[in-house]
Amino acid sequence: MDSTQLLKGTLDAAVLAVLENEDGYGYDIVRRLRDAGFNEIGEASVYGTLRRMFVSGALSTYVVASVDGPHRKYYSLKPEGRAMLSAQRKTWQKFASAMNQLLGTTKKASN
C-alpha cells in the first residue's frame, strides 16, 4: 500500500496535531512531521496545507525576526483549529477502529 495516499487524506489532522502544543514555522513543521515518521512528506504539500488552513481560519500567523537569516512566519492554532483537530480525532478513531476490525479478521482457508 502506498502510504503517500494515506497521508494525503490525513495531512490536515497531522499538521494540526503538530501545532497543538507548540507553534512552528514551515520547515520546522515539515521536520516534525518527518520526525514522526512521515518521511515522504513534501514541503510543498505542507506549505499548501498551512496556507489553506490559515485562509479557512484554523490558524493564525506571526513573524519572528531571525539573526541568522530571513524572518520566519510562525503558525499557531486558533480555537477553530483546535475544534477541527478534536473533530478529526473523533473521525480518525472511528475510521481506525473499523479498519482494525476489518484487517484483524482472518478468513479460514477454504478446502
* CATH class bucket: Mainly Alpha
How is the main sheet built?
3 strands, antiparallel
Q: Roughly how many Å is the radius of gyration?
A: 17 Å
N/C terminus separation: 29 Å
Strand content: 5-15%
Number of strands: 3
**Widest beta sheet: strand line-up:** 1-3-2
Number of contiguous helices = 4
Q: Could you name the CATH homologous superfamily?
A: Winged helix-like DNA-binding domain superfamily/Winged helix DNA-binding domain
Mean of residue pLDDT values: 89
Task: Tally the structural domains.
Answer: 1
**In terms of per-residue confidence, which ranges show pLDDT below 50 for 5 or more consecutive residues?**
none
CATH architecture designation:
Orthogonal Bundle
- Give the SSE string: HEHHEEH
CATH topology: Arc Repressor Mutant, subunit A
State the share of residues found in helices, binned by percent.
55-70%
Q: So what's the overall shape?
A: globular
- Structural category is alpha+beta
